[in-house]
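[retry 2/3] Preprotein translocase subunit YajC: previous attempt timed out, resubmitting with same input.
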Amino acid sequence: MTDVTNLAAATGTGGSSGIFLYIVLGALVLMMFFGSRRARKQQREASAFRDSLEVGTEVMTGSGFFGTIVAVEGDRITLAAEDGGRTTWIRQAIAKVVEPVVEDDTLDVPEEDGTDTTVTSQDERPTND
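[retry 2/3] Preprotein translocase subunit YajC: success.
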């Protein structure tokens, strides 16, 4: 028995490996704790988003289908496509709300001398006369 104790003391692996093990285990526990907190926060945000869906909102599903909500019945949401077709989806399939496209009437038109001119409508476009 004394030979094993003397061998461990000679190699220096006696108590330092125990401390290292506790440090590694502590780091793993902290990573699991912060990872689960982040996942719970994301789940709460997704749940709040899906609970706020209402008729008239344009949405996109997880598979990429775009439609406007025409009916909400519990966990079932009916979407209308642009062509008038209607499909029913579960609430969890809705991925995001589609923001309306804002059109900008101003155009940057490069001049022949390399400068840009801002044009507000087709009638005000510079001509090469």
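[retry 2/3] Preprotein translocase subunit YajC: The longest strand covers residues 66-73.
[retry 2/3] clearing retry counter.
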